[in-house]
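Lab notebook, design round three. We kept the backbone fixed and only want residue identities now. Task for the bench partner: fill in a sequence for the structure below.
Input structure tokens:
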């Protein structure tokens, strides 16, 4: 049924859910997943906890929505990933510290047994390693200039990207993610990678 302004109940509900997800991102970035409460998220969007539960019946459901939202921001078809574009991704991440902080906090917590995001991150990293291996193979073939295969290099590439994020979050004045990542690409064989 349309409302007076022409907006449907479904559209209003979707907007409210998006607002809740944004608030949850903020609260998780500030307190971590375990320290974040549904009450704190509800308060931030002007709802009661019962009102929030209407949109997300559990804290875990809200966490999954947060992670999916974050993935939507970074969505690039696998076939379009190229090694030279990864530096642009690192530059982009440096412009959104709140999102990176939330992701990093959840990632760190997810290694504990029974954490609701553990399965998500396990599956995500499997996919990311495969995507990076395909991008490396497209760039270098079956062997990189350093002699490693794309499959052996992909976990290192992902580890450098995520490890740089942690270091940058802790000391952004001392760690230039993009410059450090370009240096790593040189180790892979990207001789022409520009300096920051």
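Proposed sequence:
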């Amino acid at each position: 049924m349309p409302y007076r302004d022409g907006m449907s109940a479904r559209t209003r509900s979707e907007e409210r859910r998006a607002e809740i997800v944004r608030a949850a991102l903020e609260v998780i970035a500030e307190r971590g997943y375990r320290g974040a409460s549904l009450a704190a998220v509800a308060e931030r969007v002007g709802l009661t906890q019962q009102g929030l539960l209407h949109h997300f019946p559990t804290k875990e459901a809200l966490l999954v929505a947060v992670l999916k939202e974050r993935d939507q921001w970074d969505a690039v078809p696998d076939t379009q990933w190229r090694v030279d574009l990864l530096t642009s991704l690192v530059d982009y991440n440096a412009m959104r510290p709140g999102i990176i902080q939330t992701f990093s906090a959840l990632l760190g917590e997810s290694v504990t047994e029974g954490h609701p995001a553990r399965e998500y991150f396990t599956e995500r990293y499997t996919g990311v390693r495969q995507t990076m291996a395909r991008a490396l193979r497209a760039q270098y073939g079956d062997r990189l200039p350093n002699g490693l295969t794309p499959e052996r290099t992909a976990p290192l590439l992902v580890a450098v990207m995520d490890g740089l994020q942690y270091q940058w979050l802790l000391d952004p004045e001392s760690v230039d993610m993009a410059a450090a990542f370009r240096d790593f690409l040189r180790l892979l064989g990207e001789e022409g990678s520009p300096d920051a």
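Keep this in mind before ordering anything: The two ends are 54 Å apart (CA to CA).
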